[in-house]
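Researcher: I'm preparing a figure for a lab meeting and need a structural model of a single chain. I don't have an experimental structure, so a prediction will have to do for now. The sequence is pasted below. Please return the structure as tokens so I can convert it later.
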Amino acid sequence: MKNLLGALAIVVCGAVSGGAAAALDYAPDTGILTDTGAGRMWVLHGIGFASSYGFPGFANDWVATLNQTQLGGHTDWALPTVVAPLDGSAPPAMSGDLGTLFVSLSGELPDRTQWPFGLGAEDYGGRIIFTDSPVPGTANFWGLNFGNGAHVAVYPGNAYAYVGVMAVRPVPEPETWSMLLAGLAVGTMRLTIRRRKSDHLVRL
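Model: Understood. Here is the structure written out token by token.
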């Protein structure tokens, strides 16, 4: 029992210390980027980056396929979101899920050539990734410019817009894991105490 609690304590401490800094883990085979610091998991490939007059229908279909096939063992993939002002102006720079990804990449990988899936390239379609927030009163959608983290209005039918979509899902932050593991340790300890009391009564 002591060994079990000791192991749990080590895991908890490791999770807490690991939460001090963001950590990016990219799996090229699945296209999944895990950002443990921000508590996000991303799909960076699948539909690629190409113009489409069918947006956002094709994006929704793609996300549905990810969930049906359980990519990465998950069924809760969704389009990234950004809260846009009601007056039609652009959302704050580096805001929303995509903004969080931009900040994480900028902080963890200062050398933009190391950004996965070519997102850091100046002349690559990854500079603009669609969110699911439309620009009020227009046929445009808000996208994130990975060159500077600003949101820009993009028309999906523009052949030069490099329309692209990512999928995102939440993952427990390190602090959450710590709380879960700590709770497990306490629960295990209480169960052991109860068993010992029960055994003692039986002997009496």
